[in-house]
Amino acid sequence: xxxxxxxxxxxxxxxxxxxxxxxxxxxxxxxxxxxxxxxxxxxxxxxxxxxxxxxxxxxxxxxxxxxxxxxxxxxxxxxxxxxxxxxxxxxxxxxxxxxxxxxxxxxxxxxxxx
Length: 114
Description:
Layout: H1 4-16, H2 32-39, H3 41-58, H4 63-81, H5 87-110
Helix pairs in contact: 1-3, 2-3, 3-5
C-alpha cells in the first residue's frame, strides 16, 4: 500500500504536467509508432503509465529479476514497433503490456511488506 500512494502521486503529476507527452521526447520521435503515440492522447497516456509501472516494478526486485524484466521490456518494444502506425495494434500492445506489468506488481506486492 505504501508503494501505491507514491505511484499515484507520480501518475497525477505527469498527467497534469503541461506539454508532457509520452515517456519519450515527442519532438525527437522518428518511427511511425512513436509518432502515432505522440498524436493520440490515449496511446500517450498508456505509454506514460507503462513507463511508470515498469520503472516502479524494476525498483522493487533484485538485480537478476530486474535484468529479466528489462529483457522482456526490450522484446515488447520490438513487438510494439511492428504495429507501425496502427492505432488498434498499438492499443492492444499497450493493453497487453500493462496487464503483464500489473501482474508483476501484484506478485511483488503479495510478497511484501515493504
